Amino acid sequence: MNGGQPTPGQTRPAGAPAPEATSVLLAGHDVPLGRYTTVRRLLPQRQRRMVGAWCFVDHFGPDDVTGRPGMQVPPHPHTGLQTVTWLLDGEILHRDSLGSYQPIRPGQLNVMTSGHGITHSEQSPPEHPPLMHGLQLWVALPDATRNGPPSFAHHAGLPVFTATDLTATVLVGEFDGVRSPAVGHTPLLAVQFDLPAGGTARLPVDRGFEHGLLVVSGSVEVDRVPVRPGSLLYLAPGRREISIQGTASATRLVLLGGEPFDESLVMWWNFVGRSHEEIVEARADWMSGRRFGPVVGDDDPPLPAPAMPAVRLKARDRHGHILG
């Protein structure tokens, strides 16, 4: 299956208009993060920019960081979004302009809400475990809350339950009657599932949600499509369940979901806004030391913003269509 192509069964009569694909396998691509880390970026992509309000999905590792610095991302700003960090191996220290100082370890969740503006840094401590592996996700904030005050929350424990062939950890939202303590601003879902070798599962889902499924270790088949680390399977709204077939190895996967996000966005660098002018203002504020504030306890030089592109930034809808 080629990345970005509809899954089997999506044929149509010659000359008929192409409907929106019910499922699309998206291949990620490698992107450097800071000086020492490379991530596989699964969203946004040309074929699919969002899953619900999830607008950015990075999968990093597993990397052997023995004798290496690990993750070293200096102070940088955000607007209009939440960052959701889920660690599978290793340790990362979060600091921000609110004064938060929070190590995150496997099984713990960090949720930072930028609102109108926040600065943070993410660093492996000097003495860190040998492996680093995890996810960093962005959630676009709706217009009603995107200019609100920033905040940070750390969840040291999350609800976990088991069923036949399945262990589920609810990161965000509610799954099968079990709710995460993490606070969201639109209807969202994020669940980690652990499936033994050869296991199967039928996951009940909200038919009004669109979903994205990514594998962090092992592999599964969904709709006869193999999903392995490095890709994301997009599933359009309308499903009541998702059937998963395990393969010869144990698998760990994450299901993201949410109501389709119908507000247009301009995403550039670390900012999520609604217009070119908003992005220009955010960049100018960052470069001049306004709005965002320093990261408390981090003396590293802040990350400079890249130059604005020569063309005007256009707002796009969740399908990637340019508006206006």
UniProtKB/TrEMBL annotation:
Domain Pirin C-terminal as annotated: residue spans: 191-290
Pfam families registered for this protein in UniProt: Pirin, Pirin_C
Keywords, ordered alphabetically: Iron, Metal-binding
GO molecular function: metal ion binding
Annotated binding of Fe cation, by residue: H76, H78, H120, E122
Domain (Pirin N-terminal): residue spans on this chain: 38-139
Cofactor note: Binds 1 Fe cation per subunit.
UniProt cofactor(s): Fe cation
Family label: Belongs to the pirin family.
PANTHER family assigned to the protein according to its UniProt record, in alphabetical order: PIRIN, PIRIN-RELATED
Protein's UniProt name: Pirin
Species this chain originates from: Micromonospora polyrhachis
